[in-house]
Amino acid sequence: MRVLGIETSCDETGVALYDTTQGLLADALHSQIAMHAEYGGVVPELASRDHTRRLLPLIDNVLEQASVGRAQLDAIAYTAGPGLVGALMVGASTAHGMARALGIPVLGVHHMEGHLLAPMLEDDAPDFPFVALLVSGGHTQLVRVDGIGRYQLLGESVDDAAGEAFDKAAKMLGLDYPGGPRVAALAEHGDPGRWRFPRPMTDRPGLDFSFSGLKTHTLTTIRGLESNAQLDDQARADVARAFEEAVADTLAIKCRRALEQTGLKRLVVAGGVSANVRLRARLEDATQKRGARVYYPRGRFCTDNGAMIAYAGAQRLLAGERDQVGLMKAVPRWP
Ligand code: KG4
Ligand code: ZN
């Protein structure tokens, strides 16, 4: 079965075609990052309008890449939430319109289920069960995954998501949006020995996270440097390094704990922050010591993309699920 996947929950228009026997046939992405950069963050109305402009040409592009005609599609999957409601509506209405015109099933997919299953698109996909660390701009969660649709939330952030913390730290350091990769690049030149920032909630049991205290600590450090006229390029790099080390360490400590608690030996890491090189090094270290293994999606499937939605939709279709055509779902907050 061939499933077209559509992702429009935030600032990337993603489209892909997944075949349940042949695997991924094609994928295409248009990122709005440059458009939002001058505003320092995603402007929801601009995001919706841009998805409207980009989506149909991207669908044509993917079908052309795969030499597949519309009539050969078996279902359409789209991100139904969580995300920006106007942005979600673009994907939802396009998916339902196409499904009605073609007389094929349609499925609304949870964005985080897409991220969670993205490593399954790799040749070396993990077997179930596994522990998943989902780290994006909106979520920081540890999930036990026993199979498709069999998810148990083990812990999550009680305040900011890890990606959000990266983006806020970037702003404090005068870096552009999106902050994660920029903080990481700056941290490369930082001295890891200059400060040790707190590893929040690691000194007590449990698998929840909190990043707002670390954010405040970062701000206080920057203000202190500023007031002493010491916030030069090196000091900014040192702050970026201390911040990144703290986030990576905190996430690794909780992952190790989740593996211990569940007795599982496979860790899947997905979502935008999973692209972070220092985090990957810490996780490699933490898992190797336990005889466990880490699995990641390939680079471009760490951040938002259509392939993960096509894959998740295909698995749900195989399980016999479909939504009522015409009953669009756009759920901005979806636990
Ligand atoms: O999964 P994603 O593309 O979108 C959401 O669903 O949120 O994640 C985006 C987040 C942003 O906060 C971005 O700053 C962060 O992932 N990010 C990174 C890196 N690349 C992206 N954070 C740290 N290091 C990176 N290399
Ligand atoms: Zn995402």
UniProtKB/TrEMBL annotation:
GO MF entry, a single one: tRNA N(6)-L-threonylcarbamoyladenine synthase activity
Residue numbers binding Fe cation: 111, 115, 304
Family: Belongs to the KAE1 / TsaD family.
Protein's name according to its UniProt entry: tRNA N6-adenosine threonylcarbamoyltransferase
GO CC list: cytoplasm
UniProt cross-references to InterPro entries, sorted A to Z: ATPase_NBD (IPR043129), Gcp-like_dom (IPR000905), KAE1/TsaD (IPR017861), TsaD (IPR022450)
Role summary: Required for the formation of a threonylcarbamoyl group on adenosine at position 37 (t(6)A37) in tRNAs that read codons beginning with adenine. Is involved in the transfer of the threonylcarbamoyl moiety of threonylcarbamoyl-AMP (TC-AMP) to the N6 group of A37, together with TsaE and TsaB. TsaD likely plays a direct catalytic role in this reaction.
Organism: Halomonas huangheensis
Positions with a binding annotation for substrate: 134-138, 167, 180, 276
Residue ranges annotated for the Gcp-like domain, each copy included: 24-311
Cofactor binding note: Binds 1 Fe(2+) ion per subunit.
Superkingdom: Bacteria
Keywords: Acyltransferase, Cytoplasm, Iron, Metal-binding, Transferase, tRNA processing
Transmembrane segments: none
Keyword Acyltransferase applies: yes
Cofactor: Fe(2+)
EC number(s) recorded for this UniProt protein: 2.3.1.234
Catalytic reaction(s) noted: L-threonylcarbamoyladenylate + adenosine(37) in tRNA = N(6)-L-threonylcarbamoyladenosine(37) in tRNA + AMP + H(+)
BP-aspect Gene Ontology terms: tRNA threonylcarbamoyladenosine modification
Subcellular location: Cytoplasm
